[in-house]
Write a structure and sequence with these properties.
Elements lengths: L15 H7 L2 H4 L3 H17 L5 H19 L12 H13 L1 H4 L7 H37 L4 E6 L2 E7 H24 L3 E2 L15 H7 L4 E2 L3 H6 L2 H27 L7 E2 L18 H24 L12 H26 L1 E2 L1 H9 L5 H10 L4 H18 L8 H5 L9 H4 L2 H6 L9 H25 L2
Parallel strand pairs: 3-4
Antiparallel strand pairs: 1-2, 5-6
C-alpha cells in the first residue's frame, strides 16, 4: 500500500479494506488532464506572486507535462493503491523532481482541486455532448426536409387523430433537441466560476491571484465564496438534469421508432446495421438499438436521483459523501454520448415507408375534424357540425368505409350544407396542406419552422464550436 500524504497524523496504518473503500483512483483517473492543467496554472500563479521561485515553477510545469505525456502514451499506469488522481499526480511529480514537487500544493487543498478538476472535465464534456446532439438534430432536420409532403397520421392517446407530415413529426423532435442545446449552454455558462484558491474551505493567508488562475483555465471569474467554492455541486446536478431531459426526448423518439418499424405500423424500416435478429425466430428484425436507448434513460435518471439525494443533507463545506458525485455523473455522460452517437446514424439510414403512412391516414378518419370545419365554414356552429360528423363516423365504422367514400346523397341526409366540394375539403393531402397556421404541418409551414430553427441554432452552434473549442 502506498504511503498517504497525511499518514504522519495517525499512529496506525490504514486498514487495507478502508483504503479500497476510500480510494477513488479507479474512476477519477479520467480527470488526469484537468488535474495537471489546473496544477500548471496554480504553479504559474505561485511563481507570479513570488510564493515559490520561478525555477521551482518551471520544474513543476516540466514534470507535470512529462507525466501527462507518459499517461497518454501508456508509459505511466495509474497506481491502484493511490487515494485519488490528485495524490497520484503529486506523488509521481515529487518522485521525479524532488523538493520542488512538494511546493506545488502550497495555497491549495484537495477540496478546491477536486472541485476544479470536475468542473473543467464536465465543462469539456458538455461541449462534446452538445456537438453530438447537434449531429442528431441535423439528422432529424434532414429527415424532415426529405419528407415535407410525406403524410402520416398524427396521434393522441396512441389513436389516429389528424393528418400531419413526417416532416412535422421530425421537426417536433428537432425543437426538443434545440431546447436541450439551450439548456446545455446554460449549464456550461454556470460552470464559469473557478473554485481554485478556495483551498479547504476558508481561503488562504498567501497573497494569491485567483483571477489569474481563473483566466488561465478559461473561466470568467473565481467563485465569490470559498465555502461555496468547495461545497458546490450544483453544476454537476444541473448537467445531470439536462442530460436526463435529453434522454427523455431520446427515449420518446426511440419508442416511436420501435412502434413504427413493427409490422402493425410498418411506417419505417431500419437499416440492417442498426437492428438485430433472434436466436430462434429466423424472421425477426428487432429494434434493439432503440430499445437500449429507451432502457438506458433509466440509468441517467438514476444518476440525477443519486446526486440530489447525496447533496440534500450535507453541511458545509466538503464531506466525503461528495466523492459519490463522480461515478454518477460520469456514467450519465458516458451513457448519453453512447446513445447519441448510435441514434444519429440509425436515423440517417432508416427508410420511410410513405405509402403505408398514407394508407394509415385513409383508414383512421383523420379527416373528421376537417369535415366538421367544412360545415362550420358554411355557417353551422362547431358543436352541431361535430355531432353530425360523429354520427357519420359511426355509420362508416359499421360499413367499413371512410368518410370520403360516402356518397353525397348520404351526407345530405345529415345536412343540406354538404355539396360536391366536400370531397376536396376532406382529401387527406388537402387536410394537411391547408394547415398553414404557424407551427402547423403544411409543407410551407414546416419549411418556415425549419428556417426559423436554423436561425435560432446558429448562436448555439457558434458557442459550442468556438468558445469551448
Amino acid at each position: 500500500m502506498s504511503e498517504k500524504m497525511w499518514a504522519e497524523r495517525f499512529s496506525r496504518k490504514e486498514d487495507e479494506r478502508v483504503n479500497d473503500f476510500n480510494s477513488s483512483i479507479r474512476f477519477d483517473c479520467r480527470m488526469y488532464k484537468q488535474d495537471i492543467e489546473g496544477s500548471i496554472a496554480h504553479a504559474r500563479m505561485l511563481a507570479r506572486q513570488s510564493i515559490i521561485s520561478a525555477e521551482d515553477a518551471e520544474k513543476i510545469e516540466e514534470g507535470l507535462l512529462a507525466i501527462m505525456s507518459d499517461i497518454r502514451g501508456g508509459k505511466l499506469a495509474f497506481d491502484p493503491d493511490a487515494e485519488d488522481i490528485h495524490m497520484f499526480v503529486e506523488a509521481e511529480l515529487t518522485k521525479r523532481i524532488g523538493e520542488a514537487g512538494k511546493r506545488l500544493h502550497t495555497a491549495r487543498s484537495r477540496n478546491d482541486q477536486v472541485a476544479l478538476d470536475l468542473k473543467m472535465y464536465l465543462r469539456e464534456e458538455t461541449g462534446n455532448i452538445a456537438r453530438l446532439l447537434i449531429e442528431t438534430l441535423e439528422a432529424t432536420v434532414k429527415k424532415a426536409e426529405e419528407n415535407l409532403r410525406t403524410v402520416m397520421p398524427g396521434y393522441t392517446h396512441l389513436q389516429r387523430a389528424q393528418p400531419v407530415t413526417f416532416a412535422h413529426h421530425m421537426s417536433a423532435y428537432a425543437e426538443m433537441f434545440a431546447r436541450d442545446l439551450k439548456k446545455l449552454k446554460n449549464a456550461a455558462e454556470n460552470m464559469d466560476e473557478c473554485p481554485l484558491g478556495s483551498c479547504a474551505l476558508a481561503g488562504t493567508t498567501y497573497n494569491t491571484d485567483r483571477m489569474y488562475t481563473a483566466k488561465q483555465l478559461g473561466f470568467d471569474r473565481p467563485c465569490a465564496n470559498s465555502l461555496d467554492g468547495v461545497s458546490d455541486r450544483d453544476f454537476v446536478i444541473e448537467l445531470a438534469a439536462v442530460l436526463s431531459l435529453i434522454m427523455t426526448h431520446l427515449s420518446r423518439l426511440a419508442e416511436e421508432i420501435i412502434l413504427w418499424c413493427s409490422w402493425e405500423f410498418k411506417f419505417i424500416e431500419l437499416d440492417d446495421a442498426y437492428a438485430t435478429g433472434s436466436s430462434i425466430m429466423p424472421q425477426k428484425k428487432n429494434p434493439d438499438v432503440a430499445e437500449l436507448i429507451r432502457g438506458k434513460a433509466g440509468r441517467v435518471f438514476g444518476s440525477l436521483a443519486a446526486l440530489l439525494t447525496m447533496m440534500k443533507g450535507l453541511p458545509l463545506a466538503y464531506d466525503k459523501d461528495m466523492q459519490e458525485d463522480k461515478e454518477a455523473v460520469f456514467d450519465a455522460v458516458d451513457t448519453i454520448k453512447l446513445c447519441l452517437s448510435t441514434l444519429t446514424p440509425m436515423l440517417s439510414t432508416m427508410t420511410v415507408n410513405r405509402e403505408n403512412m398514407l394508407a394509415a391516414c385513409k383508414k383512421g378518419f383523420v379527416n373528421a375534424t376537417d369535415m366538421a370545419d367544412y360545415l362550420v365554414k358554411k355557417g353551422m356552429p362547431f358543436r352541431s357540425a361535430y355531432k353530425i360528423v360523429g354520427t357519420l363516423v359511426g355509420e362508416c365504422v359499421q360499413k367499413g368505409v371512410g368518410l370520403e367514400e360516402l356518397p353525397l346523397k348520404e351526407l345530405k341526409k345529415k345536412s343540406e350544407l354538404f355539396d360536391e366540394d366536400v370531397f376536396a375539403a376532406i382529401d387527406i393531402l388537402t387536410c394537411v396542406t391547408r394547415r398553414e397556421s404557424e407551427g402547423g404541418p403544411a409543407p410551407e409551414a414546416v419549411e418556415r419552422g425549419l428556417s426559423s430553427l436554423e436561425k435560432r441554432l446558429t448562436p448555439l452552434k457558434e458557442y459550442f464550436a468556438i468558445k469551448r473549442k
